Automatic annotation (TrEMBL):
Protein source organism: freshwater metagenome
Residues annotated as domain Major facilitator superfamily (MFS) profile: 18-452
Keyword Transmembrane helix listed: yes
Cellular component terms (Gene Ontology): plasma membrane
SUPFAM superfamilies listed in its UniProt record: MFS general substrate transporter
Membrane topology: Multi-pass membrane protein
Name this polypeptide is given: Unannotated protein
Transmembrane segments: 17-40, 52-74, 81-102, 108-129, 141-165, 171-194, 206-223, 229-249, 261-286, 292-315, 327-350, 356-378, 399-419, 425-444
Cell compartment(s), UniProt: Membrane
UniProt keywords, alphabetically: Membrane, Transmembrane, Transmembrane helix
Gene Ontology molecular-function annotations: transmembrane transporter activity
Amino acid sequence: MQTTGDSTSVFAPGVRLLTIGLVSIVTLVAFESMAVATVMPLVEDDLGDLWLYGWVFTAFFLGNLVGAVIAGSAADRMRPAIPFAAGLLLFSAGLVVGGAASSMGMLVAGRVLQGVGAGAMPAISYVCIGRGYRPESRARMFALMSSAWVVPSVAGPALAGVIGATVGWRWVFLGLLPLCGVIGLIALLGVRTIETSHETAAASNVMRALQVALGAGLLLAGLQTSAPFVAVPVVLIGVLVLIPAFRSLTPEGTLRARPGLAATVLVRGLLGFAFFAADAYVPFAITTVRGLSATIGGLALTTATFTWTIASWLQARWVDRTGPRRLIVAGLLVIAGGSLSMLAVLVPAIPAWIGLGSWAIAGFGIGLAYAPLSLVTLAVAPKGEEGRATAGLQLSDMLGTALGTGVAGAVLTIAVRTFDSERVGLLAVFLISAAVALLGARLAHRVPARIHQT
């Protein structure tokens, strides 16, 4: 392992700049995530095309998985600062396209660029944590990165709601460009301290990552197609394209949830599916269906991110004592409870603001489960292949999230088309989220109960 200092503190002189850089870039991505999710109901009112609402999120996460695999593979061959800088540039370009979008389709294209960039930067961050920090410091670093969401989660929705209601939703994208320049420079100064791995790198997986994204895109496009004679073959082709590529990019036995690293990677995907399938539509339920403001809808995301951060800090204190498995199982069960409690928001007689507390429950759940899965992956990854292992984890994470938001969008579209009811669609979305969380909790028993950090 390539560490830059002897102290276990994440702010020790040898890693201080790296810590500041990684936390800063998480803050940037967090502001973007919270702001865009908050103003999406306003965007849909302006641009129309409700059937593409879910694709705004799905495109971002499909881009994420491509960026994560490409950057993780590149980090095993060159200095991590190079793919990190490329990701930052693509993220910035996506903001420009999104801010200038004249249609929902153009916005989706911009979100692909943002996604590739945003996928590359966390993958490189994981590599930097694996190479730059002592094992006993990694849990604290993951917790610190999670805490970087606090300020964006508090200020982001309110600020985005005000911007969207005054100067327009486009400035939610364009207004982040100056931050990209300042924060990007700080982050690059820290990441450049991490050197290339001296171990032999595995083969490049760029084409397979593109194959995964293509397969997932076809699968989700087929699900939203109204004509069965078109939908069925498109879905089948998507599955046939997706599965072989996914299997080649993840540990052997991932789809079978083989105990150990493979199960860890699969559960990460189910975690992303369960949480974000509902998360993408929480503001929609509160704003569009129940008629509250975009700011209130965004506050539901704020409460969830706040409890996510609290749980992340708690798991850092508990993981050595309880082991990762218990935290992961508990977190998934809590997410299921949060998704089910969101059903109350759909009842006209119940105040819509109850959604703020309901989704806070789910936020606490993902905070408990998320970082322990990362710790297990770093602990059991083959030496010199931290980039490939973490890229596989990120791939499963982003694919699960993309499929979750995409399936939720397809379900909502079908409900509106069939029943002319957004409530029916959201009912199905929250039930699917809870079901996948319960499945993840069951399979999480195959994640290592303890980890031995070396």
